[in-house]
Amino acid sequence: MSKEVVIYDVTLRDGTQGEGISFSVEDKIKVSHKIDELGVEYIEGGWPGSNERDEGFFNQAKKENYTNSKIVAFGSTRRAKSTCADDANIQALLRAATPAVTIVGKTWDFHVSEALKISNQENLDLISDSISYLSSRIDEVFFDAEHFFDGFKKNKEFALECINYAIKSGAKGVALCDTNGGTTPWEISEIVSKVKKVHPMIVLGIHTHNDSGLGVANALAAVKSGANQVQGTINGYGERCGNSNLCTIIANLNLKMGIQCVTEENLKKLYGVSNYISELANLPSDMKSPFVGKSAFAHKGGIHVSAIAKNNLTYEHIEPEKVGNSRRILISDLAGRSNVLYKLNELKIRDGVTDKNISDILSQLKKLENDGYEFEGVDASFELLVKRVSGQYSPKIELIETEINTRQIVPSNESSAKVIIKIDDQIMESVASGSGPVNALDLALRKALTDRYSFLSNVVLTDYRVRVVGGNKGTESLVRVIIESSDGPSSWSTIGVSSDIVDASWRALIDSIEYKLMKIS
């Protein structure tokens, strides 16, 4: 593999302009280190002249150590009526004290006349002055040619002249920006090829947005046509429809185009980096994201799973481990024997399960899913089903009676629950109070059990999710509850379904406890 393309990350600047994203200074530092671990060469940290948060990031970044990445400060060309020496944004870039800076400037004459209200020559002077001033004081200066492709299509001569001025003034490289995200891959290829022909030796970057759903395709098309730097964001974060997704770009460059923009070892970190940053952004991970999505290598149909069991290349374009992801076999009413067998082997519970058991498991799965159950991602409930059907485990807890009392007296929302259960012919009763009926029910159940099973005191609920199944019946609709539990070293998920949310919760709770008892026994 050759390393012909450098990755330039803009998650901390362009990415933070995306709706719902707000990183603190501490968050931005964490993100920068995680991207550094991936082996990205440049990390644009923000715009130091625009807000205190970015100022804070650059102040802190000076104290940090990065192994692979250079931190870059971003800003605009000087203002039309000021000099570089007295322009606040230009001076803020110098104070950031980064080894590289990127200056954005207009390259579409429409923006020059309508947004800046200056002449084309004045705009060229802004570019030249700003880059000349900074390149004499900073090691590397890049020029972001804003709206370049739109500008090129309307006034090719002026767009190219903007680039000429930037290069002559000392810019190490130029990034061609599809700022509105409306350019197609064939247009990108044609225009990048023309620029590359005029400037064959410069660092030529590509910066695309995803407004037409073509951000990644456009970036890869630019690389094929001569671009040797790619800008983008982790998970495609960014304004409007987002920027081009670096996770997808990096994987395609390495695995499809033979360009090692990060090492093979670092490529295995891609899944972890993607999910770490989505967690820090407090945004749900896109399950269907190529390469790094949870569903990217998930298989549900029985025919698919049967083929995957023989050779994964039958329904996978790469080995998921290459990007740090993993294969998932889903259990549902579409499952065949291959799904069940694969899942039994994956969970290491194949022993003791006969062919007749597998037929019975499939039959019960189809019935339960028809009743609203869904066994994707709830391996503990699936394992309990397998052990019950194969006669390897019998439930220990039998519910005799529950009684729940909910009081809603402002500001309190306390509920109490009484549970009467039967374990090994012994009747046990317990009462507990909690914040809501489900919490009270959970506490009452544990209280009844912990004297007998002290290890249950270490089991805690870490997640509780509710979804209405077939909501056309209004408040009589079925409710699906999924509970995630943990004892510290391990975690497991269980499911319950009922038209009563408390009953659905009870079923998920019981499965959670039964699973732990099964593992101990």
> How many helix segments?
18
What integer value in Å does the Rg equal?
29 Å
CATH architecture of the largest domain: Alpha-Beta Barrel
Sheet of most strands:
8 strands, parallel, barrel
Strand content: 15-25%
Physical arrangement of strands within the biggest beta sheet: 1-2-3-4-5-6-7-8
Kindly report how far apart the N and C termini lie: 52 Å
Mean pLDDT: 91
Shape: elongated
- Uncertain parts: none
User: Which CATH class of the largest domain is shown?
Assistant: Alpha Beta
- Tell me the CATH superfamily of the largest domain: Aldolase class I
CATH topology of the largest domain: TIM Barrel
Assign the structural class, choosing from mainly alpha, mainly beta, alpha/beta, alpha+beta, or little secondary structure: alpha/beta
Tell me roughly what share of residues is in helical segments.
25-40%
Number of strands: 16
Work out the count of structural domains: 3
Structural commentary:
The chain has 521 residues and is an alpha/beta fold. It folds into 3 domains: 275 residues, Aldolase class I (TIM Barrel); 92 residues, no CATH class; 124 residues, Alpha-isopropylmalate synthase LeuA, regulatory domain (Double Stranded RNA Binding Domain, 2-Layer Sandwich), CATH 3.30.160. The chain is built from 18 helices and 16 strands. The strands form 4 sheets. An 8-stranded parallel beta barrel has the order 1-2-3-4-5-6-7-8, surrounded by 9 helices. Strand 7, helix 9 and strand 8 form a beta-alpha-beta unit. Helix 1 crosses helix 2. The longest helix is centred in the C-terminal third of the chain and has 20 residues. The chain is elongated, with a radius of gyration of 29 Å.
